[in-house]
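[User]
If only I could read C-alpha cells as easily as an amino acid sequence. I have put the entry right below:
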Amino acid sequence: MPGTKHAVLSPSSSHIWLACPPSARFASGFPDEDSQFARQGTEAHSLCQHKLETALGRETADPVPGMEFHDQEMEEASSDYALFVTEALAEMRGRCPDPQVLIEQKLDFSRWVPEGFGYGDCIIAGDGEARVIDFKYGLGVLVEADRNTQMMCYALGALELLDPLYDMKRISMTIFQPRRENVSTFSMSREELLDWADNVLAPAAALAFEGKGDYRAGDHCRFCRARSVCRARAEHNLEMARYDFRMPDSLEDPEIEAILARVDEFIAWAGDIKDHALSEALKGKAYSGFKVVEGRSVRRYTDEGKAADAVSDAGFDPYERKILGITAMSSLLGKKKFEEILGPLVYKAPGKPALVPESDRRPAMETAREDFKVMEE
C-alpha cells in the first residue's frame, strides 16, 4: 500500500469540497477518524493488491500474517477483485497488444487541483483508452461510478500519466464493491473530462485550497470531519424550527413533504451533535443541564468455559443448538458451494416498507391506495 500522506484536497473527499469549498481547510483542523472499518478497508486493499500482483506474475509479499481483520469474506472479495481485473485486462488485450497495468499508482492531477494527487487501485491502459478500477470494501454505503468525482480525479491523473503513450480518447471508471454485489461503470470522453476539470473542478479547488467560498450544507456533510460543529450545517438544519408543530393542530401535506425532504439529514446532524457532546463531556467539559452517566449493560459470564463446566457438573446441558445464519454458513461453505447446496432452500423475505425520495433506485411498492384502484377497476 502507498504511504499515509494525504493531499489537502484529496480525491476521496472531493465531493465535499466541490460542494462546500471552505470545508477543506476548516475540516483539516479536526482529527481523521481511524475507525475499525477504515483499518479493515486498508487491509482488504492490501490483500487485493497482493492477489492481483500474484495473478500478473509479480513478486509480492503475503500481507495476511500481519492482518487483524482477515477472514473468509475478505479472502473471497479480494479473489473476486483480482479475477475481475484480470478479465478486464484480457478484454483490453483483445483491442491492444501491449496494454499497461498500474497497481496502487500515484496519480497527479495538480494541473487542476493545487497539490492534488491520489492513489489509483488499478489502471489498465491501451490504445486510445484507459480503465480506472477502484475497490471499495465498505458495506454501509453503495458507491456509484456515475460522475463520481473521486474517480474523475483519478481519471485526470491517469490521463496526465498515460496520454503521451496511448493517446487517450476515452476513459471508463469502475467501482468494484463486492460486499454490496455492486459493479458500477461510468465512461466519458477525453473532451468531457477535461471540460469538467477546467470549468468545475479547477475553480472550486482554487477556492477550497485558499479556504474561501461559501459554506453549503447538504448530504455531503455526513462525511465531513467538521460536521458536528459546523455552523452552516446547524443553521441549515435548524431551518426546520420555523415549522410550528402546534399550530395548526395538523400539518398540511406540503409542510409534511418539506419536512420529509430534510428529516434524515436533520436526524443525522442531531446524532452527530450528541456524539460530539458526549466525547467532549468525557474529556471533562460541562454542559449546563446535562451529566454523564453509566449506560445500560447486560450480564455476561466472566469465563464461558468454566460456566459451561459448572452447569454440566450440575446435570444440565448448557448449550443450545441452532443452524448457522446465512452469512456464517456462506463463509463456512464458500459462495459457490453455498449456492449448490442451499440455493433452493434460501429465500429473501420482502423488506420493511420505507418512505424514500423518488430519486431512490428501488422500484415503488404497490400501496393500499393502488390496490384499491385495481379493485375499483
